[in-house]
Amino acid sequence: MRKIETSEAVLDSGEAALSADYFKLYHDYLRFMRANGLFEPSWELPDLKAFDGSCYIICPEIIEDFGEYEALLKAAGCRIVNQAEIGAGMIKLYENSVIETDTVLSEIASLLAEGTAHTGIAVTVADDKTAELLLSKARLRGIPLNYRSGSPLSDYPAGRLPELIRACRSSGFSIASMKNLLLYRAFIWKDAETAAALIRFGIEYRCLKNTSVGPKTTSSEDVWASRLKSIAINDSQRPEACRREAMLKFYKKLKSGIEKITGASSFEALSREFQIFISTFLNTETEHWNAECEQVFQRTREVLSSLRETVKRLENVLVSDPLGLWIELLNEKIYVQQQAEEGIAVFPYRVSALINPSHHFIIGLSHDAAAVASKAFSFLTDQQRKDIGAAELNMTDDFIRIFALSGDDVRFSCSTDTADGAALPPGFFISSGTISRIKSAAMEDGFFTDPIQSENRWWDRACRAGFRLEEAGELPILSLSQLEGFAYASAAFMSEKGFDAVKQSFPADAAGQLASELSDDGFFRVSATALNRWTECRFNMLLTDVLNIRENEYILRAEDPWTAGSVMHDILLDFFTELKSSGTSFRLAGNTDNYRKMIAASTDRVFTEWEKWRNYFYGPAWESLKRRSLQDLQLFPSAEAEYFDGLSPEILEQWLEFNMEEFRIRVLGKIDRISTGTDGAVIVDYKKSWKKQTRAKFIEEDEQGGLLPPKIGYQLPFYILLARENGMKVNAAAYYSISGGAHFPVSGGFGVLSDEDADRLCELTLSEISRMAEESRKGNFTAPERCGGCGFRTVCRKRFNVRWINR
Ligand code: SF4
Predict the structure, then answer these.
(1) Based on the structure, what is the number of domains in the chain?
(2) Is there a single domain that holds both residue 279 and residue 238?
(3) Has residue 58 been placed in a domain?
(4) pLDDT tens digits for 389-421?
(5) Are residues 685 and 716 in the same domain?
(6) 256 phi and psi angles, rounded to 5 deg
(7) What's the 493 CA to ligand 1 centre distance in angstroms?
(8) 37 shares its domain with 110
(9) What is the mean pLDDT of residues 155-166?
(10) Most CB within 10 Å of its CB: which of 263, 515, 613, 791?
């Protein structure tokens, strides 16, 4: 505002509408300040008489608003000291920031070893990524650094609570926002168990977010409350149901607390509701809090108190969104954490411009990081600024000159390759020709005694020698923290491993126990899914089918493919169950309309059943699935008639099995449908979507002409075997694509496989079933040489664990 006032050019910008806006803003603001007895310190002209000629202004070049006060200060007799003109210096340019930080730390370590006090050394880091790198590398070397940088309060975990609360409300209590709030570790929830159970429930029962469109309702639906109530009634056997009341009560209280905070119309009300929320849900006893967290949280609340006090004083001020204003202020207020430990001071660039330690390292000072420019009238466009002649104030070189004087021994450095990509040294050094390029070879000599570099070189040699340690040479002299690291490494990835199931078979007794998990009355059970899994990776099959380990799902999708597929299967099952109970076979002629009506009725029935008893998903997605199912399945009658007209539904999603007595194996599976006619049976497996497959996907031979496992899996030959062994003559087997509205025959007259192909596949399937039983009984669940990875990567040592080579 002060700048507006002093610049007539701005108030008379040439654009009438714009000038009118500035005038209005200026006068309204003035009126507001006067009416409330307020003043802005930066707007007031200071009274400089008190200086009495004894005031020095050092380096005015880097004071952004010096120009505004220059005349006034000079008139008051202030002495101006322009140091920036005389500072100079040279910069070291490294290949990359890793080498740069290593070198700087090496030099610091040498200074400390020579007896320099840590207070005589300072580091200035020009960007955050270099600071991160420096701090982590210093930890490795045991060099204590003390980074004195502040961040907005909202960047600290404890300063985020207001934002997390607002996100819950604005997202309609979405699962993501609830997860962020209730599982946030910065706070200790009084009832953490119920909070976590509520999130688990939300994921399992798809509480994506509260909605205004839900199944059978056009009004808003509180998904959390309605699911908690209905699941409790319909699913009373599940353990979660026992905690439903506690969860429902917790959710209602939480929702109401959040709504009161977000709906607060004054800072008074906001403070009150926030206090109630905290005392209701959080454990506020200080011994439970991390000290740092507590300080930030207190500061966050102080910001709210000061807002409340200010507005109280300004009686006629109304704030439309108190929570929003509070959050905005938290985004702006910079908070510098207190440092408990002593260490070498590390500053962000510019903050340390006038310090004067014995040794000052200024690192990561690339051209971009060194740039310091200030634009006057930042609210104007570039063109408008140009029109009124407002120049940009560039202080880049002034800062470098001042930094060149910021210590007895000042060392600038930067790198050409940084975490942010390629970088150049500042133009100041380029134009003065004071860049010293540091080559790797020169560094190697200089690093000879540096323990980290020595260790890196030793590992490098060990690696090149194929991890034969004797050839890597003697271990260099290491620091304590490095020795500690070595001790961890040798106890972990370098040590001899115990039993390793991805590489070895289990011993006989354990093997027997594992196989018994897959057996009934001594018969080893084999399903098509387990056989496919075993073919791809036995270790995966061990985890999934024997040990029953499942990956926890933490991400919630609006629609999940498994439920969508099950619903569509259920509709076709319902349709054929109706047809079968009417005692008629499927015959399209004269029945097209009737069949379509039957499918529509089946769709209605299935969706109603799911809504009543099952875990259906998020309202709008559920409605959309219903529309899609109805539309896709209307194509089914004519597709069915194309290949299987006149057949009667016989087996509908029924378990079939047969025993291979000789090997004590039970083969079992559930086939979607078997329809029969006078010639024999056809097997149909429904897929949500499917496309035509070539013969090569089923039949592939090795060099001797032996059949290899089918690329597409054993499902259809497996089903053919099940049907045959249950006394049926199988004429054809096909997949039906629900979204494509078409059958894809695999075997039989129209299929891609001849009868001979189908028989060979069945033989291979039988032999693989017995091999699977035999290997599993021997405890062989080893992983394949190569695999594309699966959900068990984190527990599988095959590819994803670091291990000492050849052990
Ligand atoms: S990561 Fe590979 S080897 Fe390990 S279980 Fe999964 S598929 Fe098998």
Answers:
(1) 6
(2) yes
(3) yes
(4) 677 788 898 899 889 989 999 999 999 998 888
(5) yes
(6) -65, -40
(7) 19
(8) no
(9) 93
(10) 515
